Amino acid sequence: MMLKLSQPNISEEAIAAVADVIRSGQLVHGTENEAFEKELAAYLGCEDVVLVSSGTAALHLALLALDIGPNDAVLVPDFTFPATANAVALVGARPVIVDVDPNTYTLSARQLEAVIQTWKGPERLRAIMPVHEFGCPADMQEINRIAKAHGLFVVEDAACALGATFQGRKLGTLGDIGCFSFHPRKTLTTGEGGALCTNDAELARRLRRLRNHGMERTASGMQFFEPATNYRLTNFQAALGRHQLPQLDGWIERRSALAKAYCELLQPLAQTGRLSLPSLIPGHSWQTFMVVLDGLADRNAIILQLRNEGVEANLGAQSLSSIGLYGPVAQDLKYGPLLYQHGLALPLFEKLSLSDVQHVVKALGTLISI
Ligand SMILES: *Cc1c(COP(=O)(O)O)cnc(C)c1O
Description:
Blueprint: H1 12-24, H2 31-44, E1 48-52, H3 55-65, E2 72-77, E3 79-80, H4 83-90, E4 94-98, H5 109-117, E5 124-128, H6 140-150, E6 153-157, E7 165-166, E8 169-170, E9 177-181, E10 194-198, H7 201-210, E11 215-218, E12 221-224, H8 235-244, H9 248-271, E13 275-276, E14 289-293, H10 299-308, E15 318-319, H11 320-323, H12 335-342, E16 343-346, H13 354-368
The structure holds pyridoxal-5'-phosphate.
């Protein structure tokens, strides 16, 4: 039996709710969408939530709604899923890659400041896109301070971080716009799916228009205001998400306990220097548990060997500079490439048992002690 890296947590009730929506015939816009938007806004503690068809769609719409485009540049962390930078490239702007903090794997505020101070263009810096990688909060206090000092928007890529917090406030609600993903690899899933949140009513209105062909319903009927695309979430997907939301905090608690157990059990290996452990940062939602192997270990070989032991593992995330699709890099990058090469994501989901964790730790320990 293979211990999966992650596993969606969908109850029979949730499946029945989806079936009800499908039987109703109201497949696209409907009451489940409206209810899920309201419930998510209440959960996050923000004014508006706009559901969309994926996390990538959310990032794309956020940049469109802020009128970011050609001749603009957006600061992104090196260590992330490429969708962060792809969204910037898709609107015709330039992603400016900044190194991450080795402790949190998120945007380094110090490096961010350094890149902004030495920026020579020709593009105009318009926004910062911190990524709360694996559910770990980026340093939003410093990032917001830097954004304010330089007149930049903040778009949080909270794709992995629904339910995670920074200083008691939900991630996604600390910048101008927050973006979430409901892909099956995230803690709450609708298959494909995503959402944006904002406290700015005008931005919310623009986002609603942009996800729906640039159209608004007015007293005289449908009116088209700007060319746009279709990024709507279906009504039955919203039903699936709605049924998971009340359980999310409990799931995050369980994931935190498992991450803590991993760290305790892996401590002896960490002490030998063969790997380093993630920090148990407050507010982390533990979408992924990733350790960093030392230079002696062949990470890719270890992924294959773990598979033989019935453990699915994988690299954690990509390094944008290492992929090399986004043009020249403004600074020397150290930690993004290192995490990309040596990061090892281990199984983590709510239904994982303590003995599963023990099995993973034992298998990994045997492989890297050789
Ligand atoms: C998953 C993820 C995305 C993309 O979300 P999709 O719903 O798969 O489009 C973007 N950014 C980060 C950091 C992610 O982890």
